[in-house]
Amino acid sequence: xxxxxxxxxxxxxxxxxxxxxxxxxxxxxxxxxxxxxxxxxxxxxxxx
Length: 48
Hints:
Layout: H1 5-47
């Protein structure tokens, strides 16, 4: 069955939402990883 125009719009908007969510999640993961490495370096500096 051919998709209606409204279904196509919903699909595209959902796809965009998923992409935006993935991007924000990837940014959070990078930020957390960066902070974790930074904190580990601070702890190493304090030990010396």
